[in-house]
Structures are given as structure tokens and as C-alpha cells.
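Re: the 164-residue chain
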Amino acid sequence: MKLPILAAAALALSAVMLPAWAADDDALSRMALCKDSWAEWRTGEPVKFQAFADHVRANFTPHGNDPFAVPKAGTSVLGLKVLEAYPDSVGMGVGFSLTVDATFDDARKTIEKALGKTLTHCETSEGTRDCELEIAKQRSVMLMAEDKPGNHRTLIGCYYFYEK
């Protein structure tokens, strides 16, 4: 009697969870983790740059005059739901970043696992938490979020140039 109930519950749970896993976008993940660089592609591999730009345009809609775009459909990176994409810059940084629906700590654990490295330079100041790890010259993985309880919006990305 309990086995059919457990099987039905497992099936229902998988129906809810599979769409999130199926929507994981490897191109966005690679760019956000500095495995690829549109800055290098722009000058050295224009075909790759154009293909990535087309991918972003096909999957995201600009949000008015804001510097970000929103996904046209459910999209995730490394299992984290993408809320916004900043394809060029945010604030004083030039690079590629995404806002994901995750706490800072959860996003950090996910990013560190994907990189196989610990984000080493972390600080809390002016109401924000941030961490960064230089991957290569002009490639730093960054995490940033408001430092307030219950916040589920974390910015993850790769920055090529960053003014502090």
C-alpha cells in the first residue's frame, strides 16, 4: 500500500524537478565561470562571439532601458534559476554576469564545486557580500549579493575589467 504512494510521490517530484535540470544552459555557465570570454572572442574569434550573442538574443528579452535582459523561458546555470542576464557590464565591471535565484552561500558552494576551487577574496561591506577568484589575466569569477537575511538574488559572473 505504501509503495504505490511513494512511487507516485517520486514521479510527481521528478516531474517538477526535471524541467529545471533540463533547462541548464552550458553556454551561459561557461561564460559566467570564465571558461569562455566574449572579450577574447570579439577580437580573436568573431564567429564564436556572434554565435554567443545570437544565443543570448534568442533566449533573453531586453528589460526596457535596464542593462539586463530576462529569460524568455525557464533557464538555469548549474541548477540555479536565472533571473537576469547582464551580457556586457554591470556597474564598474565589464564582463558577463547573471542574477540567479539563490542565497549567496548556496551560489558560492555551487560555483566553487563547478570550478573545483575556493573563492578566495571575500568581503562584506556597505550592505553587500562579494567574493572573487582570478582565473586568468583579465578573468575573475565574481559573486555579489545584498547582505540581508532571506535574500535569494545573487549575481554571478566573469569580469574582464573591474574598477574597485
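Residues 24-162 form one domain.
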